[in-house]
Amino acid sequence: MSVLALDFDGVLCDSARETGITGWKAAGKLWQDMVEDLPPERLLDAYCRARPVIETGYEAILMMRLLKDGEDPDELLENFPERLPETIERSGVDAQKLKGLYGAIRDRWIKEDPQGWLSLSPLYPGTVETLHAIPKGVECYIVTTKEARFVEQLLAYHSMHFDAARIYGLDRRMKKEAVLRELMVRHTGCPIDFVEDRLGTLKRLSLQKDLAPVRLHIACWGYNTETECREAVALNIHLLRVLSLEQITNAEYDFDQ
């Protein structure tokens, strides 16, 4: 038996446009120059370009604020984390309240227009086929910073059934390294593969000595850049160009190096 752990946004689901629009709608509650129901298409395109640097949903509010100010999305890819504190301060509320606002706006949108919300988060090509092809000997989990209920809704919309008990979402309040440690205990001695699109997360995991047996893969179709994919290879993180069970399970590693 083996274990396959998959991130959701940026690995299975392309939610960039949905998160950008939610961020814009939430920003409209804070700034009077962002009260239109939808962002201009050019700003949404810029958000999708800068999306790789977003780690948690509420940061989309702040990204949209900076893009509305005329910031270059390519520059934000480099300096957005450093810009976060000042932009949070500009909002007049703290990060916790921004998270609450972001969630409330998304909940309202889902309630008022569920089909519209769901349609903006397509699954990546090959996702359905790959999940359907997972053999009985592979225990599959979803490990994500998205709330599990949203993952369930999106998979159901795309006619995919996934055991809710195997979704580790934001609501469990566990960092990804903690989830992987739990899976190592639950499936002692079994090989574990983890597929993630954020290089920062993979770098953090690679520094945890007790997680050395976990084989790390970067999904290059997700929210990252070509430069980050090249950096991942240099760090002995396996590069994936397409979601393929064969490529994941056949990756060669030498953890003694």
Please supply descriptive tags for the structure shown above.
257 residues, alpha/beta, Rossmann fold, six-stranded parallel β-sheet, 12 helices, 11% strand, disordered C terminus
Structural write-up:
The chain is globular and about 55 Å long. It contains 12 helices and 6 strands. Mean pLDDT is 91; it is low at 253-257. The longest helix has 19 residues, at 73-91. Strand 5 (214-219), helix 11 and strand 6 form a beta-alpha-beta unit. The protein has helices spanning 16-27, 41-50, 59-68, 73-91, 95-112, 114-119, 127-132, 148-157, 176-186, 199-206, 226-234, 245-249, and strands at residues 2-6, 138-143, 167-168, 192-196, 214-219, 238-240. With 257 residues, it is an alpha/beta fold.
